[in-house]
Amino acid sequence: MRITAALVSRMIVHAIVTLTLLAHGVSISALADERAAQPRRDFHVDSRVRYGLYQLRFASPRGAITVNLPADLCAGETVLGSVVSEPSGRGPEDRARNQSVLNTYAISLGASEIAVHFQALRWMVTIGSGGNPGEVILRDRQGVEAARAPLTVSTTVISGEQTIPRKYLGPIRLQIPTHGQADRPLILRGPMLDEHIPLHVMIGDKEAVLLAASPRRVIIMTPRDLYGKVTLGIRLGEMIVYDGAYRSDHIRRSFNPWPYVIGGAVVIGIGVAVIAATPIHLHLPPINLE
After folding, report:
1. What is the pLDDT of residues 152-184, one digit of tens each?
2. Residue 196: inside a domain, yes or no?
3. Of 4, 64, 70, 83, which is the most buried if we count CB atoms within 10 A?
4. β-bridge pairing 199-203 and 135-139
5. Considering only CA atoms, which of 229, 235, 154 is closest in space to residue 220?
């Protein structure tokens, strides 16, 4: 084996670094363990409040995982939420592979851990020391942290609203919209959350997907392919607590004029090119110079 000056230099530098680490009481293995314990940056975290939802979105090249919680989180209450995964990919097979990877992750929320593929969560909202409600942590199948996002929780008791179900022996004050858009979240206001009684919301002949719920409101996702005048019914267990008229509208999309502008420019360009390529024959009468 031929030892060069460059190899000797690298060995000397490596020895100096190793001795320096040992002098400070830090071993190479400890550094590796510390690096492994740090969260990976595979996911970009984004949070927003809309449609009455507190949404935490973990996005990666394989797709996104969204955690939906009610926006009116309050300490000491039990709330419902949902986990929605959206795989990316060019085709069905690519999206299926990415979906299988996303399903291996889990959401840690307080003392609870929910697998992504379960799609539903229940959480007793607690406040830790110093008033910190904690964070939502995304973990992989080995339990290694992949990303985290902070939570904002109110410590003020919300008053002025009926927040505790009256075991449905008397009337329940509900505020139910009479119209909305298809495939959009819809807020139903009123005390409809009970830990032991299932909640079902029917729009027409289709059951709406529950996104989140607190003691004061329920947020559902309206059916996608349902338009026109239908009925909206709410059932707690076997008891119907609401049944009224509802109108489901098409999604209003903004007008994009650019396809028409580009199409018109292409047609005009083709017309100009055809005219330019067409030979023009001029038949002029003879000129008598006499």
Report:
1. 776 554 444 444 443 443 456 788 999 999 999
2. yes
3. 70
4. unpaired
5. 235
Rounded to whole angstroms, the Cα distance separating 252 from 182 reads: 10
b/e map 172-207, b = 16+ CB within 10 Å: eebebeeebebeebbbbebbbbbeeeebebbbbeee
The number of domains in the chain is 2
Contact present, 232 and 220 (Cβ < 8 Å):
no
* Whether 188 and 220 share a structural domain: yes
Which DSSP letter does residue 10 get? H
The token pair that represents 77 in the structure block: 């209450």
Query: What is the residue range of 183's domain?
Result: 171-276
- What are the tokens at 61? 């090249």
Helix pair angle (28-37, 5-23), 10° resolution: 80
CA dihedral 119, 124, 127, 132 (to 10 degrees): 0
What is the gyration radius of the CA atoms in the chain, in angstroms?
31
User: Which residue stretches of 45-114 are H helix?
Assistant: 92-102
Question: 145 and 241 share a domain?
Answer: no
Residue that is last in its domain, among 150, 182, 209: 150
Strand order from edge to edge, sheet including 135-139: 112-115, 106-109, 135-139, 145-150
Q: CATH no. for residue 217? A: 2.60.40.10
